[in-house]
Amino acid sequence: EEMSDAVRSFLDTGIYRLDRDGSMVVFLDPVRILNHSYSRFRVSPSAYYSRSFETTTAAMKTDAVEDSRIVKKRKRTRAPRDLNERERAAEKRHQEARTCLLNAHKAFLEAAELQALLPELVKSEISLLTRRASEQKFIQLGGLWQAPLYEISLCFRNKNLSDDTGGYRLGDHGGSIIVHQLYNNLICNETNEDVEAEFQSNHYILPSRSCFHMSDLRQVRNLVPAHSKDGFNFIVIDPPWENGSACQKALYPTLPNRYFLYLPVKELAHEGGALVALWMTNREKLRIFVENELFPAWGVTKFVLSYWLKVKPDGSLISELDLFHHRPYECLLLGYINLQNDDSRAMPFEYLGINQVIVSIPGDYSRKPPLGQLLMDHIPGPKPAKCIELFARELGAGWTSWGNEPLHFQDSKYFVER
Ligand code: SAM
Prior knowledge:
The chain has 418 residues and is of the alpha/beta class. It is built from eleven helices and 18 strands. The radius of gyration is 22 Å and the shape is globular. The two termini are 25 Å apart.
């Protein structure tokens, strides 16, 4: 069968461009993008897109609840005196976003060849029932007095691996097993292939040249380089913003906004410039805080707004666009630190223009699509770019991940062997 260049490229990269009329729209398949990080394993689509498999009855129930909410909301929006000043400002921003999101969704739905591929993307290859239910509780363990005593074993297939990363070597198993202190420690897979690691009978997959530091906010300064020439060129941050959602509270702890003022983002940046990507919720109060306090404190300038639009495998939005508390989109602010004036990439805004929309089918709760491949051309400084993710729950080839549970999505249950 005839395959278009766009489809061929999408199947390889996980990126499908839908740009039109000067607006930037792109559809991402995170599974395909993440797979570029792995050699011996693949991300399991059914594990990544597990939310798309929630039973139809459960889905129907939530739909019914949402429907009743829509009715209430519609009634309320008819009486504008119900909205306070901040809500009106939020509504105004939503109206600005609305046109560009609707255009993006239209472009996405009209790409017939892409629509035809969607059911394939999320396709279940292994039964979800075979996935182990138990998940390591890294956050809780990290808070125990025993935390400094926990150790993780990295199982390298190469027997003659020289190790200068501070771990100690165990026995002879045909390969090398190197044991590291798990918490408050920078652990790296410096080889060019995936490495399996074991902690308390769970297995984790560490992609090539990936590093992680599992620790609390108080330890993040340990990642600041001695000299900013060794700093990072791309800094992705998805903070645990407070938003009052009960589901979020159960899944990970949140922090008040002022804590993020002390994140050493400026100190982590490379002297030759860094692109900063900050994920945000839709709260108006938060937008004001980020623009007036947080970005100035971090030294982030020239930022632009992008949107992440969430769709279902059937192409429809995950919720109605105008639902006040259940927007089917989130905001992503992109800005620069230490941008050199003579850098030709000081013009990236031609591409990183306003109205950029990223469309994808969401994975697990709060899991964001990977941005590295998409934004690669807009990262300033020397190549290959040094990339770091703060508050990460996963690793990436060539990336450094910091947070209190960076191994969360590295559990072997999210992978299949190639
Ligand atoms: N970007 C991630 C993803 O795509 O899966 C989601 C990040 S989530 C919004 C925020 C993360 O920050 C959670 O993993 C949470 O446990 C972590 N976190 C919360 N409080 C923290 C703290 N004090 N120190 C380090 N990490 C913390």
